[in-house]
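re: ur question from earlier - yeah i can do the single chain one, its not a big deal. heres the input i used so u can compare w yours
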Amino acid sequence: MYLSKKVRLNRLMKNGRCLDVAIDHGVCNEPSFMSGLEDMAGVVKMLVDAGPDAIQMNYGQSDLLQSLPGANRPALVMRVDMGNPYNRVRHRDMWAVLQNESDPILPALRMDAACVVVNLFMLPDEPDLFRQCVANISRLGNECEKYGMPLMIEPLVMLPNDQGGYLVDGDTQKIVTLVRLAREMGADIIKADPTDDPNDFHHVVEAARCPVLVRGGGKADLRRVIETSAALMAQGAHGMVYGRNIYQHDNPRAVVAALMALIHDGADADAAWNIYSQANGQ
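and the output i got, formated as tokens:
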């Protein structure tokens, strides 16, 4: 691995672990994702004050983070692709493209990102979408090696759209197989969905052979989120990439405090919930 990759990974992963707060949802073109992200400058300031390890953003908003003073602000993880699979309706044409086709890494280099992230969609009956993702990752991987940029791949196994939109398929075998493919394509970090049974997640970690951060998905009951997160950490996860379960919460700072305790301090679910409750004034 190039030295510059190691330097960037060290900036992102504190002692091999990371809480990355995703607020890159603007490229999904899905209105329900925007609740809580109307004031991006305010959201970024709030998250910086909360102190996660990283914030995941797109190029057009990343100046809000990178222009802030101080050496201890969270690292920037930059989303470099976009697509239409997050909508509730099934489109006639499903697509996923790199945001900057001519030079996909250049925006991340300009903004001093610690990592870039790209999707690997596997949707039922959408082989062309999968092929587009493979092509995106192949091109991006070469650019990442050239410039020493860590590559985070997000393998997403989805259920059929007729079940209420493209929801996560938590089948362990399917997730493990797609995670293994992501590693074969050169992932330095993998952002993976949780398995239906958290006790199976060690199979995902074994297949990745690189740090695995758990994807959060839609907003859920916070106590359950914390309990599941603790179980996944016990199975070998290296942290989380959570968005709506943080920025759509009434007190995102308290949620960040609880998750950071899980990830970096070895807190169990009860201890993390107590940290949240105290930070939330309960």
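The beta strands are 18-22, 54-57, 75-79, 81-83, 96-98, 115-122, 151-157, 189-192, 212-215, 239-242. not sure if urs matches, ping me
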